[in-house]
């Protein structure tokens, strides 16, 4: 995973995350002046724009936008910015499914896109962009993706090939308290699975989230060190 | 919050410095910013034009052709401005329409891409080439950077190889199964925009024979906010003029116009050379990588 923050000039915060072939760029502007119809008297309104790497945004992107809104609106301290707007723009730059050549043109492209393969990267990139923009957050958060294969084994952060042969795909977002995952903020599952399997996936997700967040913490520490310009003279 | 407005003081400062032949970033009046091109996977280009940053991605799809043109492929150039680039792009703006129209004119309507070569089966299946532009940071001159980026992306893009069997079914090969095919780009249009500033009043501009108007290549965001008028010229390195757009604003001396076009040819050659060397270097890299992979597979056998 490769992360760059403060990449854009005209917004308040931005982050670019590269994970394998998937590359996501998120920008955050806020608090800014909202349009009248967006204004809320006691809370900040949240505008989320998600743009795919190929073509224009359609129903799939709308669905992802709604999911992202439900995650972010519970994590941003919105009452700190009444009558203001926080604008999050997600631009997917490249996607693993883009390079796949499909022979049966009817449905396969959409079938592949059913997997929200880039969604964890979007969530994690949003986290860094929000940190970069200094917007108040209740808690840190991290998204993890897992899939359950035919032989019921859990695969951590599955790739496209793993997803194609999987039985179910699970996406979990954990909030982080004292560097440890605490609550599940969001859970999204696709495919066929039993209750037992879901609990196993959650337990396992808890462990990966903890492990991945130590990596995130190092990235944040490095970012703060780099951004801190008033260094003591030697 | 970062603002996009410009103060009267700043406006005056820019015009005064232009009068003396200097610009805020130290360039000469007819000097363009040097584009930085990073080529990624097939058809993926990251372009930095000064602080203006555009990501361009070309992709392909098999579709049914239009009925009136059964043997021609399709080229779609898709460009939407998002508030990521600048807060002023919050709503669909005039800029967006302008950029799209000029790219259309300079690339699609100038036949830069051979569309007939994209036909697979007449009237049934043709390739649709889609160029998606994402403008991620705005610092002036979107038109030049978008056109430049689109054409590099088209040259860098390779169409997957395919075969037709006797039943008319198409099999498309993965990039590592069969070497992909380059698109046939017939010429390389280079678009350049020139901004005009009128340091004196309107009367001077319209009535006098003196040409005090200042022309500036490749304006930055601040210069774009101050300018009175602009001209967009597309040329190629064969010294052909592809399109010329000047929509209103202050009138410009016609001799000056010819001089500006001459200057554009010089830039067109320079930029065409840059495209060719960049794409060639990337292809050599790819070749080396693929060659190594071939050697590896021989080794394991």
UniProtKB/TrEMBL annotation, chain A:
Gene Ontology CC: one annotated term: nuclear exosome (RNase complex)
Main localization, broad class: nucleus
Cellular localization per UniProt: Nucleus
Record's signal peptide: none
GO MF annotation terms: RNA binding
Any Pfam family hit: RNase_PH
Chain coiled-coil ranges: none
The UniProt record lists the keyword 4Fe-4S: no
The Exoribonuclease phosphorolytic domain, residue ranges: 3-135
Matches recorded under InterPro entries: ExoRNase_PH_dom1 (IPR001247), ExoRNase_PH_dom2_sf (IPR036345), PNPase/RNase_PH_dom_sf (IPR027408), Ribosomal_Su5_D2-typ_SF (IPR020568), RNase_PH (IPR050080)
Similarity comment text for this entry: Belongs to the RNase PH family.
PANTHER family reported for this sequence: EXOSOME COMPLEX COMPONENT, EXOSOME COMPLEX COMPONENT RRP46
Record protein name field: Exoribonuclease phosphorolytic domain-containing protein
Automatic annotation (TrEMBL), chain B:
Subcellular compartments: Cytoplasm; Nucleus
Record bears the keyword Secreted: no
Alphabetical keyword list: Cytoplasm, Nucleus, Ribonucleoprotein, Ribosomal protein, RNA-binding
Membrane-spanning parts: none
Top-level division of the source organism's lineage: Eukaryota
Pfam families: RNase_PH, RNase_PH_C
GO terms for biological process, alphabetical: exonucleolytic trimming to generate mature 3'-end of 5.8S rRNA from tricistronic rRNA transcript (SSU-rRNA, 5.8S rRNA, LSU-rRNA); nuclear mRNA surveillance; nuclear polyadenylation-dependent rRNA catabolic process; rRNA catabolic process; TRAMP-dependent tRNA surveillance pathway; U1 snRNA 3'-end processing; U4 snRNA 3'-end processing; U5 snRNA 3'-end processing
Annotated protein name in UniProt: Ribosomal protein S5 domain 2-like protein
Source species of the chain: Candida tenuis (strain ATCC 10573 / BCRC 21748 / CBS 615 / JCM 9827 / NBRC 10315 / NRRL Y-1498 / VKM Y-70) (Yeast)
């Amino acid at each position: 995973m490769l992360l760059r923050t403060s990449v854009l000039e005209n917004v308040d915060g931005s982050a670019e995350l590269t994970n394998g072939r998937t590359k996501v760029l998120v920008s955050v502007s806020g608090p800014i002046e909202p349009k009248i119809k967006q204004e809320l008297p006691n809370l900040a309104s949240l505008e989320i724009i998600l743009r795919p790497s190929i073509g224009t945004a359609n129903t799939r992107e709308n669905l992802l936008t709604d999911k992202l809104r439900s995650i972010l609106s519970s994590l941003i301290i919105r009452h700190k910015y009444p009558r203001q707007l926080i604008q999050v723009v997600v631009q997917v730059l490249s996607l693993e499914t883009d390079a796949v050549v499909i022979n049966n043109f009817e449905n396969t492209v959409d079938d592949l896109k059913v997997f929200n393969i880039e969604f964890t990267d979007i969530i994690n990139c949003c986290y860094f962009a929000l940190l970069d923009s200094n917007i108040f957050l209740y808690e840190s958060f991290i998204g993890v993706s897992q899939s359950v294969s035919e032989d019921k084994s859990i695969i951590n952060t599955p790739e496209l090939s793993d997803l194609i042969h999987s039985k179910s795909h699970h996406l979990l977002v954990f909030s982080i308290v004292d560097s440890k995952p605490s609550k599940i903020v969001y859970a999204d599952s696709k495919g066929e699975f039993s209750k037992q399997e879901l609990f196993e996936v959650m337990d396992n997700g808890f462990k990966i989230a903890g492990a991945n967040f130590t990596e995130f913490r190092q990235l944040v520490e490095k970012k703060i060190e780099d951004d801190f310009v008033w260094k003591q003279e030697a | 919050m970062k603002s996009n407005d410009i103060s009267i003081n700043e406006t005056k400062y820019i015009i005064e410095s232009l009068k003396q032949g200097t610009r805020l970033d130290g360039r000469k009046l007819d000097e363009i910013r040097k584009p930085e091109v990073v080529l990624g996977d097939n058809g993926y280009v990251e372009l930095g034009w000064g602080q203006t940053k555009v990501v361009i991605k070309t992709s392909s799809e098999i579709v049914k052709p239009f009925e009136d043109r059964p043997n021609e492929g399709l080229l779609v150039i898709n460009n939407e401005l998002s508030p990521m680039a600048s807060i002023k792009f919050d709503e669909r703006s005039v800029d967006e329409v302008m950029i799209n129209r000029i790219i259309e004119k300079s690339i699609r309507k100038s036949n830069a891409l051979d569309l007939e070569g994209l036909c697979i089966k007449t009237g049934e299946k043709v390739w649709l080439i889609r160029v998606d532009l994402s403008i991620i940071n705005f610092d002036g001159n979107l038109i030049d950077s978008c056109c430049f980026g689109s054409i590099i992306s088209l040259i860098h893009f390779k169409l997957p190889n395919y075969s037709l069997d006797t039943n008319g079914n198409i099999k498309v090969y993965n990039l590592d199964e069969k070497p992909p095919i380059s698109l046939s780009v017939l010429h390389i249009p280079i678009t350049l925009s020139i901004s005009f500033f009128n340091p004196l009043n309107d009367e001077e501009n319209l009535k006098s024979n003196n040409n005090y108007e200042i022309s500036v290549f490749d304006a930055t965001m601040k210069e774009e906010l101050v300018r009175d008028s602009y001209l967009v010229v597309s040329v190629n390195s064969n010294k052909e003029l592809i399109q010329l757009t000047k929509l209103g604003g202050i009138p410009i001396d016609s001799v000056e116009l010819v001089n500006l076009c001459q200057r554009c040819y010089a830039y067109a050659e320079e930029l065409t050379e840059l495209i060719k060397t960049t794409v060639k270097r990337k292809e050599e890299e790819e070749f080396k990588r693929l060659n190594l992979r071939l050697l590896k597979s021989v080794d394991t056998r």
